[in-house]
């Protein structure tokens, strides 16, 4: 991590300071800067504001609501010192290699299973690669081995494919057992 | 603790759905195509980026075609018996080894070779005339080239043999 500063304070000291973050439902969260910086989006805001950063007036997050941000913060607290994740793909199949998760991470996703899409959207906006890619993997885990009907039911998706479109999909994926 | 599956929000960006699809095998993304129009269109547009099916070895040997997903040591995906000297109706033959293909004709099983990547194509022990007929039939059934990274012959595409 670079030793950038805000308010004239060096990075390690700054990381221990609190900053107020305001979500789109006007909830204020007082967070250690070192934790908030797990989000590249927030880190960039802190860097951009530099000397003019007012720690008490708050950083606005117009695209995230309080209940989801609370969950994101749990992740950031646990991963504040974690190294950057590396996204790799299988050279033959182009399939993304699956990450091995810790027991804490598995438990985290078990706890927030019904918020996976919201977590993915928040992690995408806040640029938290570990939370983003791990959540995508968890969503893939839910899809794997399931039929189209089961996937639709699970995610509340309407079947809007016509019979002609389905026939075309079957024709192009003739090796697939629909 | 939440235990119900997650509903998808209509405002979920395609970028996120793509990153989920990148984690899946081709067989699973094929299932996803049947979910809804939006997912189908997305998968079709990402055809060259999404995971593909990969088979390590497609082996043409005496009176038999074998397909291996991972390596020679594993059980083949299928074994297709072919009479190398009488190949007029070989596509009506039945397939052996894997229950998944039982009671399917060679014609149906050969379609399984479509839309996949191959590590090796090995051709051994077939008489030339029979081999050419079989390769021609395979190319016709799969409606396109089957190409591999390596082969034990000069060509890397099945239709180059023809």
TrEMBL record, chain A:
Gene3D superfamilies: Potassium Channel Kv1.1, Chain A. InterPro entries: SKP1 (IPR016897), SKP1-like (IPR001232), SKP1-like_dim_sf (IPR036296), SKP1/BTB/POZ_sf (IPR011333), Skp1_comp_dimer (IPR016072), Skp1_comp_POZ (IPR016073). Keywords: Ubl conjugation pathway. GO terms for biological process: ubiquitin-dependent protein catabolic process. SUPFAM superfamilies: POZ domain, Skp1 dimerisation domain-like. Pathway: Protein modification; protein ubiquitination. It comes from the Eukaryota. Residues 130-176 form the SKP1 component dimerisation domain. Residues 19-81 form the SKP1 component POZ domain. Probable essential component of SCF (SKP1-CUL1-F-box protein) E3 ubiquitin-protein ligase complexes, which mediate the ubiquitination and subsequent proteasomal degradation of target proteins. Regulates cell proliferation during embryonic and larval development. Belongs to the SKP1 family. This is Skp1-related protein.
From TrEMBL, chain B:
This is F-box domain-containing protein. Residues 13-48 form the F-box domain. Pfam families: F-box. SUPFAM superfamilies: F-box domain. The lineage of its organism: Eukaryota, Metazoa, Ecdysozoa, Nematoda, Chromadorea.
